[in-house]
Design brief:
Layout (H helix, E strand, L loop, with lengths): L5 H12 L12 H20 L1 H5 L8 H26 L5 H9 L16 H22 L5 H29 L3 H20 L11 H6 L7 H18 L10 E3 L4 E3 L5 H11 L3 H14 L1 H14 L1
Helix pairs in contact: 2-4, 4-7, 6-7, 6-8, 6-10
Bound molecules: benzoyl coenzyme A.
Length: 309
Protein backbone atom coordinates (compact mmCIF):
# COMPACT_ATOMS: atom_id res chain seq x y z
CA UNK A 1 0.00 0.00 0.00
CA UNK A 2 1.52 3.39 -0.83
CA UNK A 3 1.77 6.41 1.40
CA UNK A 4 0.75 9.96 0.75
CA UNK A 5 0.70 12.08 3.90
CA UNK A 6 3.76 13.20 5.88
CA UNK A 7 2.21 11.91 9.10
CA UNK A 8 2.00 8.34 7.82
CA UNK A 9 5.52 8.62 6.38
CA UNK A 10 6.78 9.57 9.85
CA UNK A 11 4.96 6.64 11.44
CA UNK A 12 6.54 4.28 8.90
CA UNK A 13 10.04 5.63 9.63
CA UNK A 14 9.44 5.38 13.38
CA UNK A 15 8.49 1.74 13.05
CA UNK A 16 11.66 1.10 11.03
CA UNK A 17 13.80 2.98 13.58
CA UNK A 18 12.32 0.91 16.40
CA UNK A 19 13.36 -2.25 14.58
CA UNK A 20 9.83 -3.44 13.73
CA UNK A 21 9.28 -5.70 10.75
CA UNK A 22 7.12 -4.34 7.92
CA UNK A 23 4.52 -6.81 6.66
CA UNK A 24 2.73 -6.97 3.26
CA UNK A 25 -0.56 -5.44 4.49
CA UNK A 26 1.14 -2.55 6.30
CA UNK A 27 1.28 0.95 4.90
CA UNK A 28 4.66 1.84 3.38
CA UNK A 29 6.08 4.27 0.81
CA UNK A 30 6.06 3.29 -2.82
CA UNK A 31 9.82 3.89 -2.97
CA UNK A 32 10.33 1.25 -0.26
CA UNK A 33 8.23 -1.19 -2.31
CA UNK A 34 10.18 -0.47 -5.51
CA UNK A 35 13.54 -0.78 -3.75
CA UNK A 36 12.55 -4.17 -2.33
CA UNK A 37 11.18 -5.45 -5.64
CA UNK A 38 14.46 -4.50 -7.33
CA UNK A 39 16.67 -6.19 -4.75
CA UNK A 40 14.49 -9.23 -4.01
CA UNK A 41 13.76 -10.03 -7.66
CA UNK A 42 17.47 -9.69 -8.51
CA UNK A 43 18.23 -11.97 -5.61
CA UNK A 44 15.67 -14.54 -6.87
CA UNK A 45 17.04 -14.34 -10.42
CA UNK A 46 20.57 -14.92 -9.07
CA UNK A 47 19.49 -18.11 -7.36
CA UNK A 48 17.86 -19.46 -10.50
CA UNK A 49 20.52 -18.34 -13.01
CA UNK A 50 23.11 -19.68 -10.53
CA UNK A 51 21.82 -23.20 -11.24
CA UNK A 52 23.29 -23.07 -14.74
CA UNK A 53 27.06 -23.06 -14.14
CA UNK A 54 26.70 -25.93 -11.65
CA UNK A 55 24.15 -27.84 -13.76
CA UNK A 56 26.85 -28.03 -16.40
CA UNK A 57 28.72 -30.56 -14.22
CA UNK A 58 25.95 -32.96 -13.12
CA UNK A 59 26.70 -35.46 -15.90
CA UNK A 60 30.45 -35.24 -15.26
CA UNK A 61 30.56 -35.46 -11.45
CA UNK A 62 33.46 -37.75 -10.48
CA UNK A 63 31.41 -40.15 -8.26
CA UNK A 64 27.83 -41.08 -7.47
CA UNK A 65 28.19 -39.36 -4.06
CA UNK A 66 29.43 -36.15 -5.71
CA UNK A 67 26.58 -36.28 -8.24
CA UNK A 68 23.92 -36.74 -5.54
CA UNK A 69 25.29 -33.84 -3.49
CA UNK A 70 25.50 -31.57 -6.53
CA UNK A 71 21.95 -32.44 -7.60
CA UNK A 72 20.63 -31.70 -4.11
CA UNK A 73 22.51 -28.39 -3.98
CA UNK A 74 21.21 -27.22 -7.36
CA UNK A 75 17.68 -28.19 -6.36
CA UNK A 76 18.12 -26.11 -3.18
CA UNK A 77 19.11 -23.08 -5.29
CA UNK A 78 15.92 -23.47 -7.34
CA UNK A 79 13.98 -23.60 -4.06
CA UNK A 80 15.67 -20.40 -2.85
CA UNK A 81 14.55 -18.71 -6.07
CA UNK A 82 10.99 -19.83 -5.37
CA UNK A 83 10.94 -18.54 -1.76
CA UNK A 84 12.26 -15.21 -3.00
CA UNK A 85 9.86 -14.89 -5.92
CA UNK A 86 6.98 -15.67 -3.54
CA UNK A 87 8.25 -13.11 -1.02
CA UNK A 88 8.55 -10.48 -3.80
CA UNK A 89 5.03 -11.27 -5.03
CA UNK A 90 3.69 -10.02 -1.67
CA UNK A 91 4.75 -6.56 -2.89
CA UNK A 92 2.25 -6.67 -5.74
CA UNK A 93 4.38 -7.78 -8.68
CA UNK A 94 3.67 -11.03 -10.51
CA UNK A 95 6.22 -13.73 -11.14
CA UNK A 96 5.76 -13.46 -14.91
CA UNK A 97 6.52 -9.73 -14.74
CA UNK A 98 9.73 -10.42 -12.82
CA UNK A 99 10.78 -13.13 -15.28
CA UNK A 100 10.06 -10.74 -18.15
CA UNK A 101 12.31 -8.11 -16.54
CA UNK A 102 15.09 -10.68 -16.26
CA UNK A 103 14.76 -11.91 -19.82
CA UNK A 104 14.66 -8.41 -21.31
CA UNK A 105 17.68 -7.20 -19.31
CA UNK A 106 15.67 -4.76 -17.12
CA UNK A 107 16.54 -6.69 -13.96
CA UNK A 108 20.04 -7.77 -13.03
CA UNK A 109 21.28 -10.98 -11.42
CA UNK A 110 24.55 -11.56 -9.61
CA UNK A 111 27.64 -10.84 -11.73
CA UNK A 112 29.26 -14.06 -10.51
CA UNK A 113 27.08 -16.33 -12.64
CA UNK A 114 28.42 -14.90 -15.88
CA UNK A 115 31.68 -16.82 -15.53
CA UNK A 116 32.13 -20.33 -16.98
CA UNK A 117 32.74 -23.55 -15.00
CA UNK A 118 35.73 -25.11 -16.77
CA UNK A 119 36.70 -28.01 -14.52
CA UNK A 120 35.41 -30.00 -11.52
CA UNK A 121 37.33 -27.79 -9.07
CA UNK A 122 35.07 -24.91 -10.20
CA UNK A 123 32.21 -26.73 -8.47
CA UNK A 124 34.30 -26.70 -5.28
CA UNK A 125 35.12 -23.02 -5.77
CA UNK A 126 31.46 -22.09 -6.31
CA UNK A 127 30.33 -23.87 -3.14
CA UNK A 128 33.17 -22.57 -1.02
CA UNK A 129 33.63 -19.03 -2.38
CA UNK A 130 30.31 -18.13 -4.03
CA UNK A 131 28.02 -19.67 -1.44
CA UNK A 132 30.50 -18.50 1.21
CA UNK A 133 30.14 -14.90 0.00
CA UNK A 134 26.37 -15.29 -0.33
CA UNK A 135 26.10 -16.49 3.30
CA UNK A 136 27.97 -13.48 4.66
CA UNK A 137 25.55 -11.20 2.80
CA UNK A 138 22.45 -13.23 3.64
CA UNK A 139 23.17 -13.66 7.35
CA UNK A 140 23.07 -9.87 7.50
CA UNK A 141 19.85 -9.79 5.43
CA UNK A 142 18.12 -12.06 7.97
CA UNK A 143 17.51 -8.83 9.92
CA UNK A 144 16.23 -6.88 6.90
CA UNK A 145 13.13 -4.81 7.69
CA UNK A 146 10.66 -6.51 5.32
CA UNK A 147 9.19 -9.56 7.11
CA UNK A 148 8.76 -11.96 4.15
CA UNK A 149 12.32 -11.24 2.89
CA UNK A 150 13.78 -11.70 6.35
CA UNK A 151 12.01 -15.03 6.88
CA UNK A 152 13.11 -16.32 3.46
CA UNK A 153 16.70 -15.45 4.41
CA UNK A 154 16.57 -17.43 7.67
CA UNK A 155 15.66 -20.58 5.79
CA UNK A 156 18.09 -19.95 2.92
CA UNK A 157 21.06 -19.40 5.26
CA UNK A 158 20.61 -22.83 6.85
CA UNK A 159 20.91 -24.48 3.43
CA UNK A 160 23.75 -22.27 2.22
CA UNK A 161 26.02 -23.26 5.09
CA UNK A 162 25.80 -26.90 3.93
CA UNK A 163 26.62 -25.73 0.39
CA UNK A 164 29.67 -23.84 1.57
CA UNK A 165 30.99 -26.88 3.42
CA UNK A 166 30.53 -29.23 0.49
CA UNK A 167 32.49 -26.80 -1.70
CA UNK A 168 35.33 -26.60 0.82
CA UNK A 169 35.34 -30.40 1.04
CA UNK A 170 35.88 -30.65 -2.74
CA UNK A 171 38.72 -28.10 -2.61
CA UNK A 172 40.34 -29.86 0.38
CA UNK A 173 40.18 -33.26 -1.34
CA UNK A 174 41.73 -31.87 -4.49
CA UNK A 175 44.50 -30.13 -2.55
CA UNK A 176 45.32 -33.47 -0.89
CA UNK A 177 45.31 -35.22 -4.29
CA UNK A 178 47.71 -35.45 -7.22
CA UNK A 179 49.75 -32.55 -8.58
CA UNK A 180 47.26 -32.22 -11.40
CA UNK A 181 44.32 -32.01 -8.99
CA UNK A 182 46.16 -29.38 -6.94
CA UNK A 183 46.75 -27.36 -10.09
CA UNK A 184 43.05 -27.58 -11.00
CA UNK A 185 42.06 -26.34 -7.53
CA UNK A 186 44.51 -23.44 -7.69
CA UNK A 187 43.34 -22.55 -11.20
CA UNK A 188 39.72 -22.44 -9.95
CA UNK A 189 40.82 -20.27 -7.00
CA UNK A 190 42.62 -17.89 -9.40
CA UNK A 191 39.53 -17.47 -11.57
CA UNK A 192 36.83 -17.27 -8.84
CA UNK A 193 38.55 -15.24 -6.10
CA UNK A 194 38.16 -11.76 -7.58
CA UNK A 195 34.65 -12.26 -9.01
CA UNK A 196 33.57 -13.51 -5.54
CA UNK A 197 34.77 -10.24 -4.01
CA UNK A 198 32.75 -8.35 -6.63
CA UNK A 199 29.56 -10.11 -5.51
CA UNK A 200 29.32 -7.62 -2.62
CA UNK A 201 28.83 -4.76 -5.07
CA UNK A 202 30.73 -1.48 -5.57
CA UNK A 203 32.64 0.26 -2.78
CA UNK A 204 30.39 2.10 -0.29
CA UNK A 205 31.41 5.49 -1.71
CA UNK A 206 30.06 4.34 -5.10
CA UNK A 207 26.87 2.53 -4.07
CA UNK A 208 23.82 4.61 -5.11
CA UNK A 209 21.21 2.36 -3.47
CA UNK A 210 22.84 2.22 -0.04
CA UNK A 211 21.40 5.52 1.26
CA UNK A 212 17.77 4.42 1.19
CA UNK A 213 18.70 0.82 1.97
CA UNK A 214 20.18 1.93 5.30
CA UNK A 215 17.48 4.48 6.06
CA UNK A 216 14.85 1.74 5.68
CA UNK A 217 17.03 -0.99 7.24
CA UNK A 218 16.75 -3.11 4.11
CA UNK A 219 20.53 -3.40 4.30
CA UNK A 220 22.05 -3.76 7.77
CA UNK A 221 25.75 -3.75 6.81
CA UNK A 222 27.53 -2.06 3.92
CA UNK A 223 29.04 -3.66 0.80
CA UNK A 224 32.60 -3.02 2.05
CA UNK A 225 31.94 -4.23 5.60
CA UNK A 226 30.49 -7.50 4.32
CA UNK A 227 33.29 -7.94 1.75
CA UNK A 228 35.88 -7.51 4.53
CA UNK A 229 34.12 -10.12 6.70
CA UNK A 230 34.29 -12.57 3.81
CA UNK A 231 37.98 -11.82 3.15
CA UNK A 232 38.92 -12.28 6.81
CA UNK A 233 37.03 -15.55 7.03
CA UNK A 234 38.15 -17.03 3.70
CA UNK A 235 41.88 -16.26 3.43
CA UNK A 236 42.77 -18.47 6.45
CA UNK A 237 40.62 -21.28 4.97
CA UNK A 238 42.55 -21.03 1.68
CA UNK A 239 45.94 -21.02 3.40
CA UNK A 240 44.99 -23.97 5.59
CA UNK A 241 44.61 -26.27 2.58
CA UNK A 242 47.65 -24.88 0.74
CA UNK A 243 45.99 -22.57 -1.79
CA UNK A 244 47.73 -19.35 -2.83
CA UNK A 245 45.76 -16.09 -2.76
CA UNK A 246 45.88 -14.70 -6.32
CA UNK A 247 46.71 -11.20 -5.11
CA UNK A 248 50.33 -10.08 -4.77
CA UNK A 249 49.24 -7.17 -2.54
CA UNK A 250 47.27 -9.03 0.11
CA UNK A 251 48.60 -8.87 3.67
CA UNK A 252 47.43 -9.21 7.24
CA UNK A 253 47.39 -5.89 9.07
CA UNK A 254 48.61 -6.97 12.51
CA UNK A 255 47.23 -3.82 14.15
CA UNK A 256 43.65 -4.10 12.90
CA UNK A 257 43.61 -7.90 12.61
CA UNK A 258 42.11 -7.55 9.10
CA UNK A 259 43.49 -8.68 5.77
CA UNK A 260 44.16 -5.95 3.24
CA UNK A 261 43.86 -6.71 -0.47
CA UNK A 262 44.89 -5.25 -3.83
CA UNK A 263 42.61 -3.24 -6.12
CA UNK A 264 39.41 -4.80 -7.42
CA UNK A 265 38.98 -4.53 -11.20
CA UNK A 266 35.76 -2.46 -11.34
CA UNK A 267 35.99 -2.14 -15.09
CA UNK A 268 35.54 -5.91 -15.34
CA UNK A 269 32.62 -5.74 -12.85
CA UNK A 270 30.87 -2.98 -14.83
CA UNK A 271 31.33 -4.88 -18.06
CA UNK A 272 29.79 -7.99 -16.54
CA UNK A 273 26.79 -6.23 -14.97
CA UNK A 274 26.16 -4.38 -18.22
CA UNK A 275 25.71 -7.65 -20.11
CA UNK A 276 29.21 -8.12 -21.51
CA UNK A 277 30.69 -10.84 -19.28
CA UNK A 278 31.89 -14.16 -20.69
CA UNK A 279 28.52 -15.95 -20.33
CA UNK A 280 25.78 -13.27 -20.05
CA UNK A 281 24.16 -14.05 -23.39
CA UNK A 282 24.41 -17.80 -22.90
CA UNK A 283 22.74 -17.58 -19.45
CA UNK A 284 19.77 -15.53 -20.65
CA UNK A 285 19.29 -17.50 -23.87
CA UNK A 286 19.29 -20.72 -21.86
CA UNK A 287 16.73 -19.28 -19.44
CA UNK A 288 14.45 -18.16 -22.28
CA UNK A 289 14.72 -21.53 -24.08
CA UNK A 290 13.79 -23.64 -21.03
CA UNK A 291 11.20 -21.15 -19.80
CA UNK A 292 9.45 -21.45 -23.16
CA UNK A 293 9.76 -25.21 -23.20
CA UNK A 294 8.24 -25.34 -19.71
CA UNK A 295 5.14 -23.34 -20.69
CA UNK A 296 3.01 -26.50 -20.72
CA UNK A 297 3.90 -27.21 -17.08
CA UNK A 298 2.70 -23.77 -15.99
CA UNK A 299 -0.47 -24.15 -18.06
CA UNK A 300 -1.15 -27.59 -16.58
CA UNK A 301 -0.61 -26.31 -13.03
CA UNK A 302 -2.97 -23.37 -13.64
CA UNK A 303 -5.61 -25.62 -15.19
CA UNK A 304 -5.49 -27.80 -12.07
CA UNK A 305 -5.77 -24.83 -9.70
CA UNK A 306 -8.75 -23.48 -11.72
CA UNK A 307 -10.44 -26.88 -11.46
CA UNK A 308 -9.96 -26.83 -7.66
CA UNK A 309 -11.94 -23.56 -7.46
N1 LIG B 1 26.02 -8.37 -9.49
O1 LIG B 1 23.96 0.55 -5.09
P1 LIG B 1 24.49 -0.85 -5.07
C1 LIG B 1 23.59 -17.59 -4.48
C2 LIG B 1 24.34 -3.59 -8.98
S1 LIG B 1 22.82 -16.27 -5.25
C3 LIG B 1 25.15 -7.68 -10.27
O2 LIG B 1 25.53 -1.18 -4.05
P2 LIG B 1 22.60 -2.55 -3.69
C4 LIG B 1 23.87 -18.81 -5.23
C5 LIG B 1 23.13 -3.18 -8.12
O3 LIG B 1 22.03 -4.06 -8.34
C6 LIG B 1 22.82 -14.99 -4.02
N2 LIG B 1 24.77 -6.41 -10.00
O4 LIG B 1 23.25 -1.86 -4.96
C7 LIG B 1 23.00 -19.26 -6.20
C8 LIG B 1 22.92 -1.77 -8.59
O5 LIG B 1 22.26 -1.77 -9.86
P3 LIG B 1 20.67 -1.42 -10.00
C9 LIG B 1 22.92 -13.63 -4.60
C10 LIG B 1 25.28 -5.86 -8.89
O6 LIG B 1 21.38 -3.27 -4.12
C11 LIG B 1 23.33 -20.38 -6.95
C12 LIG B 1 24.33 -1.28 -8.86
O7 LIG B 1 25.14 -2.42 -9.06
N3 LIG B 1 22.79 -12.68 -3.51
O8 LIG B 1 23.87 -17.48 -3.35
O9 LIG B 1 22.47 -1.58 -2.56
C13 LIG B 1 24.53 -21.08 -6.72
C14 LIG B 1 24.89 -0.44 -7.71
O10 LIG B 1 25.05 -1.25 -6.51
C15 LIG B 1 26.15 -6.53 -8.02
C16 LIG B 1 22.06 -11.54 -3.60
O11 LIG B 1 21.47 -11.27 -4.61
C17 LIG B 1 26.53 -7.83 -8.37
N4 LIG B 1 27.39 -8.55 -7.63
O12 LIG B 1 23.72 -3.63 -3.24
C18 LIG B 1 25.37 -20.65 -5.72
C19 LIG B 1 22.02 -10.67 -2.36
N5 LIG B 1 26.48 -5.70 -7.01
O13 LIG B 1 19.93 -2.55 -9.28
C20 LIG B 1 25.05 -19.52 -4.95
C21 LIG B 1 20.93 -9.63 -2.35
C22 LIG B 1 25.83 -4.54 -7.23
O14 LIG B 1 20.45 -0.10 -9.30
N6 LIG B 1 21.36 -8.36 -2.85
N7 LIG B 1 25.12 -4.63 -8.35
O15 LIG B 1 20.43 -1.42 -11.47
C23 LIG B 1 22.09 -7.46 -2.14
O16 LIG B 1 22.46 -7.70 -1.00
C24 LIG B 1 22.42 -6.14 -2.80
O17 LIG B 1 21.51 -5.95 -3.85
C25 LIG B 1 23.89 -6.06 -3.33
C26 LIG B 1 24.08 -4.72 -4.07
C27 LIG B 1 24.86 -6.11 -2.16
C28 LIG B 1 24.20 -7.19 -4.33
Amino acid sequence: MSLTSNATLETFQERIDQGEYIEPKDVFPDEYRKHLIRQMSQHAHSEVIGMQPEGNWITRAPSLRAKQILLAKIQDEGGHGLYLYSAAETLGISRSEMINQLQTGKAKYSSIFNYPTLNWADIGAIGWLVDGAAIVNQVSLQRTSYGPYSRAMVRICKEESFHQRQGYEIMTKMMRGTNEQQKMAQDAMNRWWWPSLMMFGPHDSNSPNSGNAFKWKIKRESNDVLRQKFIDKTIPQALLIGLTIPDKDYKLNEKTGHYEIGKINWEEFNNVINGNGPCNKQRINHHIKYHNEGAWVREAALAYSKKQK
